[in-house]
Amino acid sequence: MSRTLLIVKPDATERNLIGHVIGRLEKAGFKIVEMRMLTLESTQARKFYAVHEGKPFIDELVEFMCSQVVVPMVLEKENAVEDLRTLIGATNPANAACGTIRQEIALDVQRNSVHASDSDENAAVEISFFFS
User: Fold this and answer.
1) How confident is the model over 31-54, as pLDDT tens digits?
2) Long-range contacts of residues 110-113, Cβ cutoff 8 Å, at least 24 apart
3) Chain-centre distance of CA 70, in angstroms?
4) What does the DSSP 8-state code read for residue 97?
């Protein structure tokens, strides 16, 4: 079994889609190992997205991620990172495959409803950010 991190982002929590996302995850065979609800402070969001520091969208991203409750969760499954990336779809919902979470509920490239780790190494770092 491997683990990965998924965050239900503010646009989805605001629209009461937490349960919908969880249902999709469970139907796809993911086990939720840990989960919490929190509102990020700007320093936390900036630290989490440090890889984007210096990019023109970082301030807007930080503001968005602090605008509403987020729901980070640790998921477990064989091939967790790759399977989750397939389930959520492309970052831009306009490019996301039919039937993916982002194609179904995302609003645009920033308000794309979920974040998912992009590698096993990043999953470990991101999980430890929210769950010690």
Assistant:
1) 999 999 999 999 999 999 998 999
2) 110/57, 110/60, 110/61, 110/64, 111/9, 111/10, 111/11, 111/64, 112/9, 112/11, 113/8, 113/9, 113/11, 113/12, 113/17, 113/21
3) 9
4) P
Write the pLDDT tens digit of every residue in 75-119: 999 999 999 999 999 999 999 999 999 999 999 999 999 999 999
Count Cβ atoms within 10 A of the Cβ of residue 128 and give its class: 0-12 exposed, 13-18 middle, 19 or more buried: exposed
The CA-to-CA distance between both ends of the chain, in Å, stands at 19
Query: Domain segments of the chain: what residues?
Result: 2-130
CA distance 78 to 91: 23
Catalytic residue numbers? 115
Confidence of residue 132 (pLDDT cuts 50, 70, 90): confident
The tokens for 126 are: 């991101």
**pTM of this structure:** 0.96
Where residue 116 falls (left for φ over 0; alpha for ψ -120 to 50; beta otherwise) is beta
Q: Is CATH 1.25.40.10 the classification given to domain 2-130?
A: no
